[in-house]
Structure formats: C-alpha cells, structure tokens
TrEMBL record:
<dbReference type="GO" id="GO:0006400">
    <property type="term" value="P:tRNA modification"/>
</dbReference>
<dbReference type="Pfam" id="PF02926">
    <property type="entry name" value="THUMP"/>
</dbReference>
<feature type="domain" description="THUMP">
    <location>
        <begin position="140"/>
        <end position="212"/>
    </location>
</feature>
<dbReference type="InterPro" id="IPR004114">
    <property type="entry name" value="THUMP_dom"/>
</dbReference>
<feature type="region of interest" description="Disordered">
    <location>
        <begin position="1"/>
        <end position="30"/>
    </location>
</feature>
<dbReference type="InterPro" id="IPR040183">
    <property type="entry name" value="THUMPD1-like"/>
</dbReference>
<dbReference type="GO" id="GO:0003723">
    <property type="term" value="F:RNA binding"/>
</dbReference>
<protein>
    <recommendedName>
        <fullName>THUMP domain-containing protein</fullName>
    </recommendedName>
</protein>
Amino acid sequence: MSNSKFIRIPDPHLRGSRTNYDDEDDDDEDDDIEAMISKERAKIHEEHAESTELTGERYKRSNKPKRRIELSLTVIHHTDTPCVLFVGCEPPIDPVRLTLSYLDQIKQTGSAQTRSVQRLEPIYDTCIAALPELLILGEKIFKEKLGGVDADAKPQVSYKILSRIRNCTKLTSAKIIEELPRKVPPSHRVSLTNPDIVILVIAYKSVAGIGIAPRFEELKKYNVSQLVDVPDLDLDQGGRSRSRVTNAVVAQSTSDASFGGND
C-alpha cells in the first residue's frame, strides 16, 4: 500500500449549506435578543406605570383636605389633690357668667346633667399664692369689675370675702380677710349677713385666684347638689326634688374617684 495523502476539497454545497445554517442561527439569536429587549422594555414600562400610579395615589392622599382642628375654649387641669379639678376658660368665655348661666339652667330644667360635681368656684384670674401678688391681682380685678378705687360710676354693692385654701401654707384666711378689703373701692361696703356679691379667694398649692360671685346665697353658695335638690316653685314641679350636678371653672366632686369634695 502506497502512502497517499488525502486532500480535502471543500464542497461548495456543503460549505454553502453550513453558511446557511450559521446565518439562520444568527437570525434566531437576533430574534431572541430583540424579543428579550422588547420584553424587558415592556417590563420597565409596566413597573414605571405602577410606580407613577402609586406616586399619584400618594399625592392624592397627601392633598386631601385636611380636617379642621377645633380649638377648645375650655381646658381641664387635673390636680394631685383628690376631688379638686380646675377648668381653664379661654376668652371670650367669662367664668362667672358661665357658672351663673349653668346654675340658672339647673333652676329652670331641674337637671344638672352630671353626677360628679358638687360645687363651682369661678375665678377671674390667678397668681402666685403669696399675699403681695394676691393683693395686686385683687386691685386689678376690683378696678375692672367694681370700678376702681375712686369709682363712682359703678353702683354701690355690699360684699364679703370668702377664702378656700387647699394644700397651701403661704396664705391664711385671716390674713386675706384683713388685707384684701383695702383693695376694694371704698364706695362698696362690707356685709357679712346678706351681701350682694361674694369675693371668692381660692388657693391651691402655689396658685391663687380671685372671683366675684353674685347671687351667692340665692344659688346655694354655688353648691350644685344642694341647688338640684331644692324644688323650684315657679316651675310648678309639685315639690319634685331633683338630683344631679355638673362642672364649670373650679369644681368640687362628691366622688373620690373624680375631682371635687367637701369643705
């Protein structure tokens, strides 16, 4: 056997066929890439649309009309003393007028709409529980409500001073009754039996306040429970007694669990 070398001659048909196969594969790969790109692009658009919708929804939620916040004209101040509760009134509410309006309502309706409060103690303003500050406050209130030291325009009234001191060692009733009348306009006179007004001095810990209470005896010393239990003959209630109570500026309660108390 002779050694012979085989020379491979490429078959143009086979070569062409191979080339066609390669072109088809390239076309398939191009189609696959385009499909992937289109799919990815569609996914991006979809995610963007969802994100835009979510953002728009959040924007809508954030731009909803905000609920109007109503500011209360009364503020409850809880104390550490059992059965004592302070209610602060913002202008234009007048604590004395508010109290009188409520007490008159009790007389007219026979119902106090609460079971907790025993007595109301309206005051106009507060100060540090010290005699000098109390005298300054008294002079200011008397000038405004009673006409000042030299006032002749205000009608003459009779008055007495009533102090209620709780957990306070800086003030004494004796000292208040001795010093405070000097700040009352001299045109007004003292009456311990049947005064037109009662000057209330309320002291609690380090705070003191002054109020002017008209019709004090008529309205049972602003004792709600006593006022409710008294039949109003003008309303023809047939002697029906009433029961229940409510709160105003500075109130006392008959319940140990709430704020209020007895003398």
